[in-house]
Write a structure and sequence with these properties.
By secondary structure, this protein is mainly alpha-helical. Helices cover 75% and strands 0% of the residues. It contains five helices and no strands. The relative contact order is 0.18.
């Protein structure tokens, strides 16, 4: 698997297996969720060279989802994260990004 696809898959898994389930659990502390949001943002920022403008959009989505969570809008935060997970899954499964005009960087 190419590096940009692997990075997208790992970010997808972070959302699907860590962050979304943690948002659903009332027992999850704010500190744990903040750490998970920060780790996801860092992972996306580290991969910006592969995803072009998509990376900036994804980082902004994570920041907004985190802010919504802190304001008490857990449902809205989860909706944004699910949409981001769909995009990351598409990148990981060979779907070219719009910002790359259909070109798949090697």
């Amino acid at each position: 698997m190419q590096q940009h696809r692997r990075a997208a898959w790992q970010a997808y898994l972070a959302i699907a297996t860590d962050l979304l389930p943690a948002l659903r659990q009332a027992a999850t502390t704010e500190i744990v969720l903040s750490e998970q949001f920060a780790a996801l943002s860092e992972r996306l920022s580290a991969s910006h060279r592969w995803w072009g403008t998509d990376a900036h959009r994804m980082t902004a989505i994570v920041a907004r989802a985190d802010a919504m969570h802190h304001c008490g809008d857990h449902c809205g935060s989860a909706v944004l994260l699910r949409a981001l997970a769909v995009r990351l899954f598409a990148i990981s499964s060979s779907t070219p990004t719009a910002s790359r005009d259909g070109c798949d960087p090697q």
